[in-house]
């Protein structure tokens, strides 16, 4: 297991390096930071623009590979460079990573556990009304893109707030800086409600479909019947024997589901006004901010690969055969 | 004869029938609807800005006085067109790469599969978004190519592993001993035997591509003005606009969800009918 993990880690690092490099090269060659400085009144002299851009390692007159070299030597030392207006990418990233990770963590935990629970429940009640209702609901949810869902949630929240007469559910930003103490905490939780729903709902639908199918395969098998014949209660047999076996395929889908959620988080952050990495990606592309785009790409690649390793570990923990071989 | 049996089995699935009727109705709405509207999508009515749905403007008007009915249908045409084109290219590419890699094996297989894996690791949304400023506005065909080139990898892996077993079948061996060139064997004997997988995949790709297109267009990284798609319309009508002027958001968003839903229904039914062994 140890050598396997080590080898896995090494190949992950290489993949992250390739993905981030490619993102940097693409961003550096297709974005144009100079556009931020041209067309101003009064016009800025070309020499000044050149020297400023060179200072930030954004000058398109420097050869691409040279810029790439400077960027890599910075990143290796933990310096992600400057934004187009001279700010530190590291500082921005420090503020934003936490915001995004909080959303992603809550989304993953709630989405996967609720999804698995709903799917398992539907499988146990196969062809009853509750199973059919869950099936139809998850099918519909999977057809609703995150940006439609998030906008619908804000419309719903404003309607509700209007009906109640005060702000019952918050739908912009992360917290209210005017509050403190317990009020602040409650306010933060309130701000989390809608983004969490918009991230989780798709995940729940996705996992529940997989989990239901896998659970149905397992339920008919001999070992579940044997477990019950040995005198285990139906509940224990289902949870300890059937659910655990049926969890394995869902665990292999974990990395894939996380990737889709990462994209979904971009929309969630943008629509609910959370200043996270996803919002930054959109803004930095619109501002031709090469170094920031590369930093977000690196973050995304690390996230996806960590999810991949976690998914392997989950499978190993659930499936004894994997651990033995 | 066989095709008749398959067709009957497919049409016996209620999902497929409902999905087909739905998609055909939406297609008719998108392409025939504009003939009945009183306004074209380029017309601006300077007497009605953001007017709610009514007898004159059936689905209301936008902030610059465009007729929402005409603009939405125009956007839907573009989204449908992009969806179908992307699905066609991506499934074709998946079949081609997978079948060649599986059939020839060896070095070609290694190279093709390495490329496939690399593309799988790259975050496609991010890459397309980064490349998008390079595309000139109006060049939506390049956008189609970009979307397609990031959506074929998983299928091509499946195609490859199925080709590995097809390669050893008697009819393929017989064809090879008769001296038929390899590319002909691939197109006449290997790919047709994967058709049920490819048909299902193409259907699912249509809805995936439509969602991908609208998602990128939502941020302005895909279809761009003066072109409209469902994504740009949802983006324009979203945010705080959606709260005060809901018709700007609800019509394009509703049509998008219906479109994806009906296509997924067809895909789901096709999978049940053609590929009963699959679980997901």
TrEMBL record, chain A:
Membrane topology (UniProt): Multi-pass membrane protein
Superkingdom of this protein's organism: Bacteria
InterPro entries for the chain: MetI-like, MetI-like_sf
Keyword line: Cell membrane, Membrane, Transmembrane, Transmembrane helix, Transport
One GO cellular component term noted in the UniProt record for this chain: plasma membrane
Principal location listed in the UniProt entry: membrane
Subcellular location: Cell membrane
Tagged with keyword Transmembrane: yes
Family matches, as Gene3D superfamilies: MetI-like (1.10.3720.10)
Signal peptide limits: none
Keyword Nucleotide-binding included in the entry's annotation: no
TM stretches of this protein: 103-124, 136-169, 189-207, 253-272, 292-318
Family designation: Belongs to the binding-protein-dependent transport system permease family.
Pfam family for this entry, one: BPD_transp_1
Protein name according to UniProt: Peptide/nickel transport system permease protein
Domain ABC transmembrane type-1: 97-311
A single BP term in Gene Ontology: transmembrane transport
Organism of this sequence: Nonomuraea dietziae
PROSITE patterns reported for this sequence: ABC_TM1 (PS50928)
UniProtKB/TrEMBL annotation, chain B:
UniProtKB keywords: Cell inner membrane, Cell membrane, Membrane, Transmembrane, Transmembrane helix, Transport
Subcellular location: Cell inner membrane; Cell membrane
UniProt GO cellular component terms: plasma membrane
GO BP, sorted A to Z: transmembrane transport
InterPro entries hit by this protein: BP-dependent_transpt_permease, MetI-like, MetI-like_sf
Membrane topology: Multi-pass membrane protein
Short name of any one Pfam family annotated for the protein: BPD_transp_1
Bilayer-crossing regions: 80-104, 111-132, 138-159, 247-267
Family matches, as PROSITE patterns: ABC_TM1
Record-annotated ABC transmembrane type-1 domain positions: 80-267
Family: Belongs to the binding-protein-dependent transport system permease family.
Name of this chain's protein: Peptide/nickel transport system permease protein
Origin species: Nonomuraea dietziae
């Amino acid at each position: 297991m140890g050598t396997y993990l080590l080898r896995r880690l090494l190949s992950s690092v290489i993949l992250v390096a390739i993905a981030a490099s490619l993102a940097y090269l693409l961003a550096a060659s297709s974005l144009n930071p100079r556009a931020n400085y041209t067309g101003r009144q009064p016009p800025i002299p070309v020499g000044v623009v050149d020297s400023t851009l060179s200072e930030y390692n954004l000058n398109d007159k420097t050869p691409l590979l040279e810029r790439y070299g400077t960027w890599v030597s910075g990143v290796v030392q933990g310096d992600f460079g400057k934004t187009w207006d001279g700010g530190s990418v590291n500082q921005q990233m420090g503020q934003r990573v936490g915001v995004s990770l909080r959303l992603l963590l809550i989304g993953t935990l709630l989405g996967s556990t609720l999804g698995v629970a709903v799917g398992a429940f539907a499988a146990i009640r196969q062809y009853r009304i509750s199973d059919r209702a869950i099936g139809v609901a998850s099918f519909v949810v999977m057809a609703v893109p995150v940006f439609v869902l998030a906008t619908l949630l804000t419309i719903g929240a404003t309607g509700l707030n209007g009906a109640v007469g005060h702000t019952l559910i918050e739908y912009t930003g992360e917290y209210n800086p005017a509050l403190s103490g317990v009020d602040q905490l409650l306010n933060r939780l309130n701000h989390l409600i809608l983004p969490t729903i918009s991230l989780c709902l798709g995940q729940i639908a996705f996992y529940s479909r997989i989990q239901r199918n896998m659970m149905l395969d397992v339920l008919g098998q001999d070992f579940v019947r044997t477990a019950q014949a040995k005198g285990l209660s139906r509940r224990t047999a289902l949870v300890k024997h059937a659910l655990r076996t049926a969890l394995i395929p869902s665990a292999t889908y974990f990395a894939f589901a996380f990737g889709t959620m990462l994209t979904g988080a971009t929309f969630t952050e943008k629509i609910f006004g959370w200043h996270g990495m996803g919002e930054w990606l959109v803004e930095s592309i619109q501002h031709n901010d090469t170094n920031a785009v590369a930093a977000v790409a690196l973050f995304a690649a690390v996230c996806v690969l960590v999810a991949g390793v976690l998914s392997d570990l989950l499978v190993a923990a659930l499936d004894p055969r994997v651990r033995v071989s | 004869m066989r095709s008749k049996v398959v067709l009957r089995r497919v049409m016996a699935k209620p999902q497929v029938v409902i999905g087909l009727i739905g998609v055909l109705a939406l297609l008719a709405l998108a392409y025939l609807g504009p003939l009945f509207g009183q306004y074209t999508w380029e017309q601006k009515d300077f007497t009605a800005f953001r007017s709610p749905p009514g007898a004159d403007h059936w689905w209301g008007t936008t902030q610059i006085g465009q007729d929402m009915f005409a603009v939405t249908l125009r956007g839907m045409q573009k989204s449908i067109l992009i969806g179908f084109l992307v699905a066609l290219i991506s499934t074709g590419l998946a079949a081609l790469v997978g079948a060649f890699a599986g059939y020839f094996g060896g070095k070609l297989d290694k190279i093709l599969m390495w490329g496939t894996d690399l593309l799988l690791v790259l975050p496609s949304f991010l890459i397309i978004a980064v490349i998008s400023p390079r595309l000139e506005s109006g060049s939506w065909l390049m956008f189609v190519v970009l979307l397609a080139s990031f959506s074929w990898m998983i299928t091509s892996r499946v195609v490859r592993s199925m080709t590995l077993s097809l390669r050893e079948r008697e009819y393929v061996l017989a064809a090879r001993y008769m001296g038929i060139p390899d590319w002909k064997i691939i197109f006449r004997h290997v790919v047709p035997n994967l058709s049920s997988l490819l048909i299902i995949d193409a259907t699912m790709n249509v809805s995936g591509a439509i969602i991908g297109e609208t998602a990128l267009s939502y941020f302005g990284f895909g279809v761009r003005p003066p072109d409209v798609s469902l994504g740009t319309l949802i983006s324009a009508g979203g945010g705080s606009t959606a709260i005060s002027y809901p018709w700007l958001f609800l019509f394009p968003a509703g049509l998008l969800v219906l479109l994806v839903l009906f296509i997924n229904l067809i895909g789901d039914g096709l999978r049940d009918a053609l590929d009963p062994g699959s679980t997901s």
